[in-house]
TrEMBL record:
Stored SUPFAM superfamilies: Protein kinase-like (PK-like)
Pfam families cross-referenced by the UniProt entry: APH
CDD domains associated with the record: ACAD10_11_N-like
Full protein name: Phosphotransferase family protein
InterPro entries: ACAD10-like, ACAD10_11_N, Aminoglycoside_PTrfase, Kinase-like_dom_sf
Species name: Algoriphagus confluentis
Residue ranges constituting the Aminoglycoside phosphotransferase domain according to the UniProt record: 27-259
Length: 342
């Protein structure tokens, strides 16, 4: 079997398609992220980005490269300005061992926990950036669906029920440890699922490390990344997932590893809900359910990756700690249910 990290076939293919000399093409992986992989391609025409599934076993349609590329195509047609422009889709697995696509490279800063302190926004900048982030999420949720064709990317009817049942099923299929809180939360969600559903375009993984900010103005969002789970469904499910990632200073440290929202200046989760509420036509009275769902979903994503790590498919050393994320997410969700606080 070919080495999936050997890009000689890709360089030859790019030479045939785009007339770039292989010796003038540089390909390096961009660090960060726990799911689909991103690589930077340096060429005579500048930088591009390549997306491919993670190495090893596929988890779900979230790793469907054609679908993710088609989402970017639809967003471009809809006039959404913050999605990278898609360039080429390759569904032939013979080139790098998996389907992949190439898109526009957006230069900027991605705010991850490993950023040097000097590159982080100040408290005043975080205050404005956190508001701009929620505004960016709202912009997505309010996109026009029918004329743009975005409505064809999902099946909004019955979305909440499918998501609840689907993520519960994924948890038990990926289960490795006995974590009773996750199972209690699963039962609670089945009994407390909202009947009313809203419809909008949703990102499904919206947080700081999936946005690119301007290096010179850290409050300005240039692009949104990682569209692999985007669809049409209830925007409050999307907000709930973002709130699950929106760690606060008083949260367990393990839940702060995905987002920098715990640093001074950022809005609290309650402030995020209030800010979203005053700008959205949606009824946010049942946000406890959506937040609990978000925490459960974060726990399941961590559980899936942890299982792949245990099976030897994902060797990143960060993955060994993800079982603690599952545990913390379950406990946080149960605590929120018992206290009715987000």
């Amino acid at each position: 079997m070919d080495n999936p990290r050997d890009f000689s076939k890709l360089k030859k293919h790019l030479q045939e398609r785009l007339y770039w000399k292989p010796e003038e093409i540089g390909i390096t992986q961009i660090a960060g992220g726990f799911s689909n992989l991103t690589f930077q391609i340096e060429t005579p025409l500048g930088k591009f980005a390549m997306r491919r599934p993670p190495y090893g076993e596929k988890i779900s349609k979230a790793h469907d490269m054609a679908r993710e590329c088609n989402i970017l195509v639809a967003l471009e047609k809809a006039g959404y300005p913050k999605a990278p422009k898609p360039i080429l889709l390759f569904e032939d697995e013979d080139i790098i061992g998996a389907p992949f696509f190439i898109m526009e490279f957006v230069d900027g800063l991605v705010l991850r926990n490993r950023n040097p302190t000097g590159m982080l926004p100040s408290a005043e900048e975080f205050e404005l950036l956190s508001k701009n982030t929620v505004d960016c999420l709202l912009e997505l949720h309010l996109l026009e669906l029918k004329n743009s064709g975005l409505i064809h990317l999902g099946k909004p009817e019955g979305y909440i029920q499918r998501q609840v049942e689907g993520w519960i099923d994924r948890y038990f299929r990926a289960k490795t440890n006995n974590l009773p809180e996750m199972e209690k939360v699963a039962d609670w969600m089945k009994s407390n699922r909202p009947e009313k559903e809203n419809v909008g375009f949703i990102h499904n993984d919206f947080k700081y490390d999936n946005v690119v900010v301007n290096r010179d103005r850290l409050t300005e969002i240039k692009a949104v990344l990682d569209w692999e789970m985007a669809t049409v469904g209830d925007p409050l499910m999307d907000l709930g997932t973002s709130l699950a990632y929106w760690a606060q200073e008083d949260d367990p440290d393990i839940l702060k590893m995905f987002n920098l929202t715990h640093l001074p200046g950022n809005m609290t989760r309650a402030e995020v809900i209030h800010y979203y509420d005053i700008k959205s036509p949606l009824d946010l009275s049942n946000m406890l359910f959506f937040y609990v769902f978000g925490l459960f979903k974060v726990g399941v994503i961590a559980q899936q990756i942890y299982k792949r790590h245990k099976q030897g498919f994902a060797n990143d050393p960060r993955f060994a700690a993800l079982i603690h994320v599952v545990n913390a997410a379950g406990k946080k969700a149960e605590q929120s249910i018992l206290t009715e606080k987000i």
